[in-house]
Design goal:
Elements (H helix, E strand, L loop, with lengths): L2 H8 L2 H15 L7 E10 L4 E6 L8 E6 L5 E8 L2 E9 L8 E4 L8 E7 L3 E8 L5 E11 L11 E9 L5 E8 L8 E6 L4 E4 L6 E8 L8 E8 L13 E4 L13 E5 L2 E10 L2 E10 L7 E6 L5 E7 L8 E4 L7 E5 L5 E6 L4 E6 L10 E3 L8 E5 L5 E6 L6 E4 L11 E5 L7 E6 L2 E9 L6 H48 L2 H16 L4 H21 L7 H18 L11
Antiparallel strand pairs: 1-32, 2-3, 3-4, 4-5, 6-7, 7-8, 8-9, 10-11, 11-12, 12-13, 14-15, 15-18, 16-17, 18-19, 19-20, 20-21, 22-23, 23-24, 24-25, 26-27, 27-28, 28-29, 30-31, 31-32
Helix pairs in contact: 2-3, 4-5, 5-6
Length: about 575
C-alpha cells in the first residue's frame, strides 16, 4: 500500500472517530455492566438484634428470624411468618459470631431446622430448633467441646457450619469447623450424627482450619473435606501437627486423615487447596504461601488424592499477605483461580499449572470473600467482597467475571462485620439480605437490563462522533475552497493592478528613451537617473501587488516616480503637484 493510500486511510473520518469513540466509552459510568445490584429496602434495628431470612417451610417464601443478644447469658430467637410471630425460642449462652447460625434440613422433611452454636466461658454447645413443623427445640445445649480464654486476649473460638450432608445413612449429618486463635483449642473438624447423638472429631492437631471445601474425591459417594490451613505460630511447645508449620491435609467422611499430613512451610504461612481435574480424575491443586520476613518462596503444587506431589511451580510478583486460590466448580474443576493481590489481578490455571487466562477485577479490601452463595438463583455461586476503598460491596461471579457493585451510604463500611442470608418471595427473583450492626440492606443482584442496550448506544456514539467529524471536515473543506477562491480573486486583481499601473505603451516608451540616452555618452547620467526611477517604480509595483493594504508613504513615492518619468519623457512639457 502506497504512502498516499495509508495517509488517506488514517486521515479518513471513519478512522479518526475510532480513538475518540474508545475514549468516550472508557469514561462512561458503569451503568452497562452485565450484572447490577439494586437496593430494595433498608431494615433498621438496635445493635443487639440481627435478622436472618430463610425459607423454613420450603414454600418459596422466606421467613424472618430475629436473633436478640440483649441478655448476655442467653440468646432469644423469634421466628416470623407473614410478619406475624410464630414462636420464641430461648437458648442458653450466645454465639461467638452470628455466622455460626445455620438453616438446613437434616431429616429431609422439607422443613428447615435452625442450628445455633453458643459458647460459655469454657465450653461450646449446639442447639437445634424445629420452628415450623414441631415448633420445638429438638436439641438444647448439646456439649461439643471445651475451650479456654487465653490471657491478655479477647479471642473467641469461631464456629463455621459447613452444612448437613449424607454421611452414610438416610438422614444427613451436620459438619462444622471450630477455629481458635490465641485460645488454642479446639481446632478441629466435626461430624455430628443427629439422630444417634454421636459426635466425631478430627484428630488432635495444632494447625488452624479456617474453612473447608467439601468434595467427593474418590467417587465413593461420600464427602471428603479439603481444609484451608493456617500456621499462626501460637503453639510454642511440641504438639501434634503444630501450627509452627502449615500442612497439606485431606479428611475423609469419618474425620480421619486420608494420608499422613505433609509438613509444608514454617509459620507464618497458609495452605490453600482446591480440587482440579488431571487426566480425567480429580486431583488437588495447592497454594502454599509464606508471609514472614525470611526469603522463603511460595508455590503452586499439584497432588494426587493420596498426597503425592506431581508438580510444583514457584510463584512471584504476588502479594503474599493477600493472595489465595479458588475452586472452579462451574466447569467441572477443569481449572482453578489464583487471586494474586488486592488490585484484583486474577489468573486462571489448568492442572498443568499453566495460565489459561488473566483477569482483572476491581480493587478489593480483602483477599477472602465474606460469603460465597448463589445470590441470583442461577445455580452458580457468587463471591461477596469488600471493595478496596471499603465504600462498596463487590459481587463477583464464580469465574471472576462481570463484577457488580453496591455503593454503601455514609456511615457504613464494607470492611465491617456483616452476615448475609437469602430472601425468597414467590413471583420475584431472589434477594440478598446483608445485616450490619443496627442496619440491614435488602439487595437484588441480577442481570442488568441495560446491558444489551450498550451495543446500540456504542454504535450511536460512534455514529455521532463520525457525523461530527464529517461536519467539521465539510466546514473545513468549505472554508478551504473559500480561501482558495479568495486567493484566486486577489491574484487576478493583483495582475490587473500591475497591468493598470504599468501601461505597456508607457513601459516601451521609457525603455526606448533609456536606450537612446545610453547611446550618447553625454546622456548616460540622465539615463542612469531615469533607469533608477523606472526600476524603483517597477519594484514598488511588484512588491505591493500581493498587498491588500499599502502604506500611504509608499503610494506617494509611486505617484511621484510615475509622473517624474512621464515629465522627463515629454521633455518637461508639464508640471504637477501632489496635495494631501
Amino acid at each position: 500500500m502506497s504512502r498516499e493510500r495509508i495517509e488517506e486511510f488514517i486521515l479518513h473520518p471513519a478512522f479518526l472517530s475510532i480513538p475518540i469513540w474508545v475514549a468516550v466509552i472508557i469514561i462512561l459510568p458503569p451503568i452497562f455492566s452485565k450484572y447490577a445490584v439494586r437496593h430494595l429496602k433498608d431494615v433498621f434495628s438496635v445493635d443487639v438484634i440481627s435478622y436472618f431470612y430463610s425459607d423454613l417451610d420450603c414454600d418459596g417464601n422466606s421467613e424472618k428470624i430475629s436473633v436478640d443478644l440483649a441478655d448476655d447469658e442467653r440468646t432469644k430467637i423469634i421466628v416470623y411468618k407473614n410478619d406475624r410471630i410464630v414462636d420464641q425460642f430461648n437458648i442458653e449462652y450466645q454465639p461467638t459470631h452470628l455466622s455460626s447460625i445455620l438453616f438446613d434440613d437434616y431429616n429431609h422433611d422439607n422443613y428447615l431446622e435452625i442450628y445455633v452454636f453458643t459458647a460459655s466461658d469454657d465450653s461450646i454447645f449446639l442447639s437445634i430448633i424445629d420452628p415450623l413443623k414441631s415448633g420445638k427445640t429438638i436439641l438444647s445445649g448439646r456439649y461439643v467441646d471445651s475451650w479456654q480464654k487465653a490471657e491478655d486476649s479477647d479471642s473467641n473460638p469461631s464456629i463455621r457450619p459447613l452444612g448437613t450432608m449424607e454421611g452414610g445413612e438416610s438422614q444427613s449429618d451436620l459438619f462444622f469447623v471450630i477455629q481458635s486463635g490465641y485460645c488454642l483449642k479446639p481446632r478441629k473438624l466435626y461430624r455430628y450424627i443427629i439422630d444417634r447423638d454421636t459426635l466425631f472429631k478430627s484428630p488432635e492437631a495444632g494447625f488452624n482450619i479456617s474453612n473447608c471445601i467439601i468434595k467427593d474425591l474418590d467417587n465413593d459417594n461420600m464427602p471428603e473435606f479439603i481444609p484451608e490451613i493456617q500456621a499462626p505460630g501460637n503453639y510454642q511447645v511440641e504438639y501434634p501437627y503444630t501450627d509452627m508449620f502449615s500442612w497439606f491435609i485431606i479428611f475423609d467422611h469419618e474425620m480421619k486423615f486420608m494420608f499422613d499430613p505433609v509438613k509444608i512451610l514454617p509459620y507464618p504461612s497458609d495452605a490453600y487447596t482446591v480440587p482440579v481435574k488431571y487426566d480425567g480424575k480429580l486431583h488437588l491443586a495447592a497454594y502454599f504461601k509464606y508471609t514472614g520476613s525470611e526469603e522463603i518462596p511460595s508455590s503452586l503444587c499439584l497432588f494426587d488424592i493420596k498426597g503425592n506431589k506431581l508438580k510444583e511451580m514457584i510463584v512471584d510478583n504476588i502479594d503474599k499477605s493477600n493472595s489465595r486460590i479458588f475452586t472452579a466448580d462451574y466447569n467441572g474443576n477443569q481449572t482453578f483461580f489464583f487471586l494474586k493481590n488486592l488490585d484484583g489481578e486474577v489468573e486462571e490455571y489448568d492442572s498443568q499449572l499453566s495460565i489459561v487466562k488473566k483477569i482483572t477485577i476491581s480493587p478489593l479490601g480483602e483477599f477472602s470473600p465474606r460469603e460465597s452463595m448463589d445470590v441470583d438463583g442461577d445455580g452458580r455461586k457468587e463471591y461477596i467482597f469488600a471493595s478496596g476503598d471499603t465504600k462498596s460491596i463487590v459481587f463477583v461471579r464464580d469465574n471472576f467475571r462481570d463484577p457488580a457493585f453496591y455503593h454503601l451510604e455514609e456511615g457504613l463500611k464494607a470492611i465491617e462485620t456483616f452476615h448475609t442470608s437469602l430472601y425468597l418471595e414467590n413471583g420475584s427473583k431472589p434477594a440478598i439480605y446483608i445485616q450490619f450492626p443496627g442496619h440491614g440492606l435488602m439487595l437484588r443482584y441480577q442481570k442488568n437490563p441495560l446491558y444489551y442496550l450498550k451495543y446500540p448506544l456504542y454504535a450511536s456514539i460512534y455514529g455521532s462522533i463520525l457525523a461530527f467529524i464529517l461536519i467539521l471536515s465539510r466546514i473545513q473543506s468549505y472554508r478551504l475552497r473559500q480561501k482558495q477562491e479568495t486567493e484566486k480573486r486577489i491574484a487576478s486583481l493583483q495582475m490587473k493592478a500591475i497591468k493598470n499601473q504599468i501601461d505597456p505603451h508607457f513601459t516601451l516608451n521609457i525603455l526606448n528613451l533609456i536606450g537612446s540616452l545610453y547611446s550618447n555618452p553625454k546622456n548616460r547620467k540622465k539615463a542612469d537617473y531615469l533607469f533608477g526611477k523606472y526600476a524603483r517604480l517597477i519594484r514598488q509595483t511588484v512588491i505591493s501587488s500581493d498587498q491588500i493594504i499599502v502604506p500611504l508613504s509608499e503610494e506617494l513615492d509611486f505617484l511621484r516616480n510615475y509622473p517624474d518619468l512621464e515629465k522627463f519623457r515629454n521633455e518637461d512639457n508639464f508640471s504637477y503637484s501632489i496635495e494631501i
